[in-house]
Amino acid sequence: xxxxxxxxxxxxxxxxxxxxxxxIKTLPYEKIIYYGDTEHxxxxxxxxxxxxxxxxxxxxxxxxxxxxxxxxxxxxxxxxAYEELQKINNKIKIINVVDPVVAELKxxxxxxxxxxxxxxxxxxxxxxxxxxxxxxxKIFSLSTPLLAPMIEEKINDNLSTNIIANYLSNKKFxxxxxxxxGCTHYHLIRENVKLFFKNEVEIIxxxxxxxxxxxxxxxxxxxxxxxxxxxxxxxxxxxxxxxFEKCAKLxxxxxxxLKQHKII
Length: 264
Hints:
Elements: E1 7-11, H1 15-26, E2 32-36, H2 48-64, E3 69-72, H3 75-80, H4 82-85, E4 93-96, H5 99-105, E5 112-118, H6 120-125, H7 127-132, E6 137-143, H8 147-152, H9 158-168, E7 178-182, H10 190-196, E8 202-204, H11 206-220, E9 234-237, H12 242-252, E10 258-260
Parallel strand pairs: 1-2, 1-3, 2-9, 3-4, 5-6, 5-7, 7-8, 9-10
């Protein structure tokens, strides 16, 4: 496999853009092909079968684009579809956004209470609890279904502040030491969460953890792009919106040629 091939990244919407941006900061000469399934967002409210179906279609699209690895930049899809996606092509590495974070948290040896906010799909699966499974670590999870649509619509006013505060003031989070933002959309309100907890709770930066994991994998497989020049990234959505294009421009600070490509 050629090291100059692109990295595929997908999510249901804009949340995964934060993952893609983090990868580019860590690996500045890699090309990203991003797919946002805006027609079916948010994934967290969909059935597992639907998430698997959408994810398979997108993965096949990214494989046709000759991506050397594919990042599932969505916690819901990482939870529901990861195992199925691994079966599609054993030559293409699929990386989810849950396992690298779990690996980091497993290194914690002292008593630690960890909060988790996420979609219904992620929270109900108890994926983090099952995979961490250490007696010194307790996970306190809460489904926060209003956050992803709010972030996708870029609502940033007193109502959004109240919604965030209402979720985070849940008694489950009274004595937590760390917080997992269990949806890639939530990294767009990371500062709001830090402010609510008055910087007394560590907000786990899964984007950095995942991007480092990607870098280490590429180094191990000798797949880091050796062509040290700025890349022209590609962006696709299943349903074109001006807001997505503006958000992509904001994240990547470059002209974006957003294309609509329906997967079904």
